[in-house]
Amino acid sequence: MQPGNCLRKVRERLGLTYRDVEQSSYELASKHGRAEFVIRISRLADIENGGVTPTLHKLYTLCALYQLDVFEVCQWYQIPLDEHLRDGFAWGAKKTHLGATPYRLRIPLKFDPACDPRRTASLTRMVESWGEFEGAIMDGPKHRYGFVGTEDCWMDPLLRPGSLVLVDPNQRAIELGPFRNEFERPIYFVDLRTAYRCSWCTRDGDNLVLHPYGLSARAPQFYRWPDDAEIVGRVVGVAMRLPERQQ
Predict the structure, then answer these.
(1) In which domain, by residue range, is 232 found?
(2) Concatenated DSSP letters of 123-158
(3) In a structure prediction context, what are the per-residue pLDDT tens digits for the chain, which is 247 residues long?
(4) Which among 87, 111, 138 is the end of a domain?
């Protein structure tokens, strides 16, 4: 079924006329102070019957008035919003940067009764059903996501280029050692004003010192704190690909 037909059926099911939608869209536009939210009768007819794709503002209006899931409506138009984080991870940028937090998380809802959490196992085989969970409900603004640029070898091979990192902005204070090993030493996501970097950090007076991983062949860098560098948060999770042996 065409997206316009789907929207028409929803409108009819709700008992809304073209005039109702137009009037409500004016009220929504007035609330947000943007005329782009308005959907006139002729435009709504074009969307439903003429194959016209609504703009972002008008798509928001329709989803709000019809109480539709914007992710589902975008699927009608073959826009896979659920895949944006995965696609961004697959075609990562060269420079390290902060990324958008996903609003949805795919979580296991039901495990195989034979699943023993004490043993290493294939999660794919152990999960009987998966479901979508709103990330905003689960984490809210607590965590942010960062992407280590494909040309950022600062912490390689401990944190490989192209890694996706989970950053906790509530942990910004630099933790002092001693640490039992390099894996216990906190890694921080740092805002350098014109760029970002993941690194170990220490303070030297008014300077923030960024320490690279020893095998990365990089030298420590000094930045005036907080004028030229500021800690966004501590890296508390990471998803990265392991290197493949070159033939």
Answers:
(1) 144-239
(2) HHHHEEEEEEEEHHHHTTTS-EEEE--TT--TTTTT
(3) 799 999 999 999 999 999 999 999 999 999 999 999 999 999 999 999 999 999 999 999 999 999 998 889 999 999 988 777 777 767 767 888 877 766 666 666 677 777 776 665 556 667 777 666 555 445 545 788 888 988 899 999 999 998 889 899 999 999 988 999 999 999 999 999 989 999 999 999 999 999 999 888 889 999 999 999 999 999 999 988 887 776 6
(4) 138
Helix (H) or strand (E) holding 47: helix 41-49
For the chain, the domain total comes to 3
Tell me, yes or no, whether 165 lies in a domain.
yes
**Residue 232, H or E segment:** strand 230-239
Residue 209 lies in a domain: yes
pTM equals 0.66
**CATH number, domain containing residue 170:** 2.10.109.10
Residues 6+ apart with CB under 8 A from 151: 94, 95, 161
| Residue at 86 is within a domain | no
Distance CA(58)–CA(66), nearest Å, equals 12
